[in-house]
Design brief:
The chain has 285 residues and is mainly alpha-helical. It has helices at residues 5-23, 43-55, 61-75, 79-84, 88-93, 104-121, 124-128, 140-155, 162-167, 178-188, 212-220, 231-244, 253-261, 279-282, and strands at residues 98-99, 102-103. Strands 1-2 form a two-stranded antiparallel sheet. The model has no long low-confidence stretch (mean pLDDT 92).
Length: 285
C-alpha cells in the first residue's frame, strides 16, 4: 500500500515511463489529428496544419479526420502558401465546409488572420512570442495574448464571430483550452511523436491538454477531484506532473491518451483492467 506522497509519486512516475515507452511512437499517432502535421515537411506548413488540426480537434474521431482531410484537400500541397494567397475566391470554396459548431466562414476568418500575421512576422511562432516571457510561471499569459490579440485584429475590421472565438478559445474566460494546449504541445515538445518545430519556448511551461478521458485518468491518479475541467483544474493537474517531470510536465499526455484510444478505456471496469498499469489506482474509485 502506498502510504506517502513521495512513494506514490515515484510509483506513478515508473508507471508513466512504462506507458511512454509503450505508446509514444510515431506509428501509433493515427487517428490522432496530430497525424496531419506529418503530411508536410516545411515548418511553415506544419505549424499551420497543427493549428487547424488542433482547433478542429473536438467531436468524434472519425468526424475530425473527415473534416481535416477535406480542409487540407482544399489547401493543396502547401498550407503556408495557401494562407499567404488567401482571397475571396478561396473563401467561397470553403462555403460548404462544416465541422460541428464551425462553418467555412469561421475557418476563412481564421485563415485571413493567419495571412495577416504571416505577412508581418513570417511564422505563427514569432507572432506567439509577442506574449511570451521566460519569467512567466507557465504558458497561459502567452496563450491568452495570442488568442485575444488575434480576435482583436478581427473585431477591428468585422463584427464578432462566435465561431472564430470557439476556434481561438482564450484562457481569459477560465477555459482549460484543451485544443490550444494540444497545439502548443505538438509545436514545442520534440520527441518521436511531437514535432518540436518551435525552438523558442520552454516545454516546462506547457499546460497539460485535458479532455474528458485525461480528466478521468488524472482524477484516478489523485491529481484533482473535480467533475468538470476548468483552467484552474488543468493547472492543478499540470502541477502534479511537474512533481514527476519538472522539465517536461506534458511528456506523458500522448501515452495516457492512448489508453482511451487504443485500449478503449471508458472508466468502467472490464477484464482488460487487470493488465492495465493504472488499475491499482482506478479499481477503488
Amino acid at each position: 500500500m502506498i502510504t506517502t506522497i513521495d512513494n506514490k509519486t515515484l510509483v506513478i512516475k515508473n508507471i508513466l515511463e512504462k506507458l511512454y515507452d509503450r505508446y509514444n511512437h510515431k506509428n501509433l499517432i493515427k487517428p490522432d489529428p496530430l497525424q496531419f502535421i506529418y503530411n508536410y515537411s516545411e515548418p511553415g506548413d506544419m505549424e499551420i496544419a497543427g493549428l487547424l488540426s488542433a482547433a478542429l480537434a473536438y467531436g468524434r474521431v472519425e468526424q475530425i479526420q473527415k473534416s481535416l482531410i477535406k480542409l487540407f484537400g482544399l489547401m493543396g500541397d502547401s498550407p503556408f502558401e495557401y494562407v499567404l494567397s488567401f482571397n475571396q475566391a478561396k473563401r467561397k470554396k470553403l462555403q460548404n465546409f462544416k465541422h460541428r459548431f464551425n462553418t467555412g466562414d469561421d475557418i476563412a476568418d481564421l485563415l485571413e488572420l493567419l495571412k495577416t500575421i504571416l505577412k508581418e512576422y513570417g511564422s505563427i511562432e514569432k507572432y506567439f512570442l509577442n506574449g511570451y516571457d521566460e519569467s512567466h510561471e507557465n504558458i497561459i499569459p502567452a496563450l491568452t495574448t495570442f488568442c485575444n490579440s488575434l480576435l482583436k485584429i478581427h473585431s477591428s475590421k468585422y463584427k464578432e464571430n462566435k465561431g472564430l472565438g470557439y476556434l481561438l478559445v482564450s484562457p481569459a474566460n477560465g477555459s482549460a483550452c484543451k485544443r490550444m494546449n494540444l497545439f502548443l504541445r505538438w509545436m514545442v515538445r520534440d520527441d518521436e511523436v511531437d514535432s518540436g518545430i518551435w525552438k523558442s519556448i520552454d516545454k516546462a511551461k506547457l499546460i497539460v491538454p485535458i479532455d474528458v478521458h485525461m480528466g478521468r485518468l488524472c482524477r484516478f491518479l489523485g491529481f484533482h477531484d473535480k467533475n468538470t475541467i476548468s483552467l484552474k483544474t488543468a493547472i492543478e493537474i499540470t502541477q502534479h506532473f511537474v512533481k514527476i517531470e519538472p522539465n517536461d510536465p506534458v511528456k506523458y499526455d500522448f501515452a495516457l491518451s492512448r489508453i482511451g484510444i487504443i485500449e478503449n478505456c471508458t472508466g468502467k471496469h472490464t477484464s482488460a483492467c487487470q493488465v492495465c498499469e493504472l488499475n491499482m489506482f482506478c479499481k477503488n474509485r
